[in-house]
Amino acid sequence: MAGKTKTCKRCGADKPLAEFTKVSRNADGLNIWCRPCVKIRSAELKAAKEFHETVKTAKVQKIPPAKKTLTREQKDAANARAKAKRDEAREMRAAAMEASK
Ligand SMILES: [Zn+2]
Questions:
Q1: Cα–Cα dist 50/34, whole Å
Q2: Using 50, 70 and 90 to split pLDDT, how confident is the model at 100?
Q3: Measured in angstroms, how far is the CA atom of residue 49 from the centroid of ligand 1?
């Protein structure tokens, strides 16, 4: 058996202990993730942070919201939904009247 290994909690690979960075607060003194995973994770965090900053900047610039214009199809669909709701309510009232007779 060649040296001790540890399973990375992120990629699940069995890797030699040298592949894990030292973390004194952990029980075995090693990171739960292997070096490549830690690297990927920090890159992800950096990307996420940059994305948030972009969003923040966009908000500060107060980009006016796009004018809310419904297409003909959207209007028709909304009208159809409203009509269906009205019809349903009418039927329920009629049924209730019928039941109370
Ligand atoms: Zn890993």
A1: 24
A2: confident
A3: 22
Place of tokens 């690979």: 13
How many Å lie between the centroid of ligand 1 and the Cα of residue 48?
20
Please give the distance, rounded to the nearest whole angstrom, from the Cα atom of residue 23 to the centre of ligand 1. 15
The Cα–Cα gap between 10 and 26 comes to: 16
| Cα gap 13→15, rounded to integer Å | 6
pLDDT, tens digit (0-9, with 9 covering 90-100), for 48-87? 999 999 888 887 777 677 777 888 899 999 999 999 999 9
Task: Give residue 11 CA to ligand 1 midpoint distance, Å.
Answer: 4
Q: How far is the CA of 47 from the centre of ligand 1 (A)?
A: 19
C-alpha 90/C-alpha 88 separation (Å) is 5
DSSP code per residue over 48-83: HHHHHHHHHHHHHTTPPPPP----HHHHHHHHHHHH
